[in-house]
Design a protein that fits this description.
With 378 residues, the protein is mainly alpha-helical. It has one domain (53-377). Helices cover 79% and strands 0% of the residues. It is built from 19 helices and no strands. The chain has helices at 2-29, 31-46, 50-57, 60-79, 81-91, 97-115, 117-135, 139-154, 162-171, 175-198, 217-235, 239-253, 255-259, 264-282, 292-306, 308-316, 322-331, 341-350, 354-377. Helix 4 (60-79) runs parallel beside helix 12, helix 11 (217-235) runs antiparallel to helix 12 (239-253) and helix 14 (264-282) packs across helix 16. The longest helix has 28 residues, at 2-29. The radius of gyration is 22 Å and the shape is globular.
């Protein structure tokens, strides 16, 4: 009896240790989601009525559209089309690091406007890292410039990143109207980034043979069709319909996109809506900037502290002018690494250090911010 009891105790201890290790592993892997869950618990302690109000704090239409577009982006990523295109661009670099980055940056920026910046990082950062190592160039600089390109390019369209999707849904702006308003600022931000790239000192570059990439045509066609359909439905105010349509089509033509999808992202965005809608309510007594330069600077600054998607949720509760808000939260993603989830993804995939990332990102952010202030004032 005593032996059986001790074995049971030892088994329970091992199971407990395993559970603790799994929790630690989850917290390390999904640290942002873990922080959001802990913040939710703190908010519940402050107001015990929060659990009953939680479903009403989620913008379900935006969440459905964000999930749909991330799934579509995953399908486009797995189709191999963008990877094959970037490999062809590498072959055009002619052994020049500067030319290689001048080719990479526009294609990453344009791709991010279509497949979202988070997915662009999943597609391009592994290729950027491999290419940088094969060519013997500065990996940290190549990764950071690529992440900035993804954040800048994604600002162009209402489907380029989560904060734009939220703003697009909240204000009912037309797709083309959004693009027209963002075209000049994004063009200037991209020009500043290309000027940064021109400062790269040329050195000998020798790129070896890169592995061939197979293209999954069926998955590409299905994902491209879903992208168009999701945009049309969102324009018509039917954002909730995008998710069931996307799930249905991918179950038939792209199950690999569903299997490879990071479903924790959906929970992350849900708790961003919940936590920061509640925080915005607690801050309702404060006067937040409603437009112009003040809103631009405040939203860009807050993005450095809590990331640009939560910053968007906080400011949206006061219904400010949409364009300065969109400009602020988008340029805010190019500075401190927590400013954008795309930066965190790039860092996790590449393995570069935060200090190396900030050595290039912060000077770019400050310069782009200064140029943007001049544009707004003029």
């Amino acid at each position: 009896m005593a032996g059986s009891s001790s074995r049971t105790t030892a088994l329970q201890r091992r199971l407990g240790d395993t559970a603790v290790e799994r929790l630690k592993d989850f917290a390390r892997r999904e640290w942002f989601l873990t922080a959001l869950l802990l913040l939710y618990l703190v908010l519940v302690l402050h107001d015990p009525t929060l659990p009953g109000r939680t479903p009403g704090l989620v913008d379900w239409r935006s969440l459905a559209l964000i999930t749909s577009l991330i799934l579509v982006s995953k399908g486009l990523e797995l189709s191999g089309v963008f990877t094959r295109l970037s490999i062809r661009l590498i072959s055009l670099s002619g052994g020049s690091e500067r030319k290689l980055m001048l080719l990479f940056i526009p294609i990453i920026a344009l791709s991010s406007a279509v497949i979202m910046n988070d997915t662009a990082m999943l597609v391009f950062i592994p290729l950027v890292v491999i290419t940088a190592r094969l060519a013997g160039i500065n990996t940290a600089r190549a990764v950071t410039l690529s992440a900035i390109a993804a954040n800048v390019g994604s600002a162009l369209t209402p489907i380029g990143n989560p904060q734009n999707i939220i703003i697009w849904n909240a204000y009912g702006i037309s797709f083309l109207g959004f693009v027209r308003a963002m075209l000049l600022p994004v063009g200037i931000w991209l020009a500043v980034l290309l000027l940064f790239t021109l400062t790269i000192r040329e050195g000998p570059v020798s790129i070896g043979r890169l592995p061939p990439v197979a293209v999954k045509r069926r998955l590409f066609v299905a994902s491209l069709g879903l992208l168009v359909s999701d945009v049309i439905l969102a324009e018509a105010g039917r954002g909730l319909w995008t998710l069931p349509l996307t799930l249905f089509v991918l179950l038939i033509a792209g199950r690999e996109a569903l299997l490879g999808f990071d479903w924790a992202l959906v929970l992350t965005f849900a708790f961003i809506f919940i936590d920061f809608s509640e925080i915005a309510g607690l801050l309702s007594g404060l006067t937040l900037p409603a437009g112009g330069l003040g809103l631009f600077l405040a939203s860009a600054g807050l993005s450095q502290l809590i990331s640009n998607v939560p910053a968007t949720v906080v400011f949206l509760t006061s219904r400010p002018d949409w364009l300065p808000l969109a400009l602020g939260v988008n340029i805010g993603g190019t500075g401190i690494i927590v400013g954008s989830l795309a930066n965190l993804i790039a860092l996790r995939i590449s393995g570069i250090g935060m200090a190396d990332f900030h050595r290039f990102s912060i000077p770019y952010f400050l310069l782009a911010l200064g140029v943007s202030i001049l544009i707004i004032l003029l």
